Amino acid sequence: MLIRPQRDEDTAAVRAVTARAFAAEPFVADLVEALAAGPARLSLVAEADDGAIVGHTTLSRGWIDAAQRLVEAWVLSPLSVDPPVQRQGIGGALVRAALAAAGELEVPAVFLEGSPDYYPRFGFEAGTTRGFARPSVRIPQCAFQVVVLPAWEPWMTGALVYPDAFWLMDAVGLRDTG
Predict the structure, then answer these.
(1) At what angle do helices 11-21 and 27-36 cross, to 10 degrees?
(2) Rounded distance between C-alpha atoms, residue 173 and residue 73, angstroms
(3) Which long-range contacts (CB under 8 A, 24 or more apart) does 17-26 make?
(4) Whether the predicted pLDDT of 178 surpasses 80
(5) Residue 86: half-sphere exposure toward Cβ, Cα within 13 Å
(6) CB atoms within 10 A of CB 94
(7) Is the Cα torsion angle 141, 153, 67, 42 positive or negative in sign?
(8) Which of 123, 50, 49, 46 minimizes the C-alpha distance to 89?
(9) How many CB atoms lie within 10 A of CB 133?
(10) Are residues 47 and 54 in contact, defined by beta-carbon separation less than 8 angstroms?
(11) Cβ distance 59 to 101 under 8 Å?
């Protein structure tokens, strides 16, 4: 398996993998396209030995609304792995590659909404423990997570501001379905 930056010719395959991975949330495939058209800073794919795209993630530009000034930070979302090959380390390889790329580009922090049982193995911790505030009260406290990277400085705390695409697609936090 190869982790590499997404190319234009991967667009249809990325959409298909995302749609299968998020079958219960079909808007996520549209979110990937909205991010690619705007705030995406880096999109990575997992390519199987036969050339098939089996995973994908996007890092998009967000901001930390710190007291001194806005600080660019990245949001890792969504993370998609084709269901037939889940639980084989593909998602983990994508997360590790995304964090390595962010660190090399001196991004101070990477945020996500995700499982507190899965992401801590990659260094993610509850955002509130580092003085960050969720961009929406609909994001469960335990799901709001961050990795601070070497470029982060202690004054870089405050509310996370999500890219517009997340708001336009209503892809922030959990909706009350009752």
Answers:
(1) 150
(2) 18
(3) 17/53, 17/54, 17/55, 17/56, 17/80, 17/81, 17/82, 18/56, 18/78, 18/80, 20/82, 20/83, 21/78, 21/80, 21/81, 21/82, 21/83, 21/86, 22/78, 22/80, 23/83
(4) no
(5) 11
(6) 21
(7) negative
(8) 46
(9) 15
(10) yes
(11) yes
Residue 124 CB burial class (10 angstroms; 0-12, 13-18, ≥19): buried
Identity at 164, one-letter amino acid code: D
Tell me which amino acid residue 86 is. Q
Phi, psi of 150 (to 5 degrees): -55, -25
pLDDT digits (tens, 9 = 90+) for 82-94: 999 999 999 999 9
Write out the E strands in 19-171: 40-47, 53-65, 70-81, 109-113, 125-126, 132-133, 144-148, 158-161
- Does the pTM exceed 0.85? yes
Candidates 101, 20, 120, 122; CA nearest to 58 is 101
Of all residues in the chain, what percent carry a pLDDT higher than 90?
89
Three-class SS state of 149: coil
User: What does the H/E/C string look like for 76-117?
Assistant: EEEEEECHHHCCCCHHHHHHHHHHHHHHHCCCCEEEEECCCC
Q: Which of 28, 96, 108 is nearest to 70 (CA)?
A: 108
